[in-house]
Amino acid sequence: MADDITFRLAxxxxxxxxxAALRAxxxxxxxxxxxxxxxxxxxxxxxxxxxxxxxxxxGDAVVGVAVFSALYSTxxxxxxxxxxxxxxxxxxxxxxxxxxxxxxxxxxIAARWGGGFIRLAVYTDNSRAVDFYRRMGFSAxxxxxxxxxxxxxxxAIGAPD
Length: 161
Fold this sequence. Notes:
globular, single chain, 24% strand, Aminopeptidase, alpha+beta
């Protein structure tokens, strides 16, 4: 039942439960999950948090999470959010928890940063997720390629030849 779900921003006391939900997402996707509870606590709830998180709760049980961070677009001339993780427990799917989590993100970024858009990435082989986001109005960004710089390449950037 959707009416028994509550939503709230996660706090430091939620780090372990948040990480457990993110581990479940990693398992669902077949991804490696390296983050520890302490990593989540430091990154999300330290002096300068790298992300914000919203919990969907049925009683005390976490049945959904959204993890997001601020970004700024000069082409849109406004702030927005990058949603890095969105997860709903299998048993809670179909109760519109995902859209409600994203609505909470929308409202939070509007109030906090004047935000006006949400950006995210979806695995191309996850057609169920692609369809879910399209039904909500998300559109694929043509002409863009997702890229990442990490590890030795990150350390070497800007180094003399």
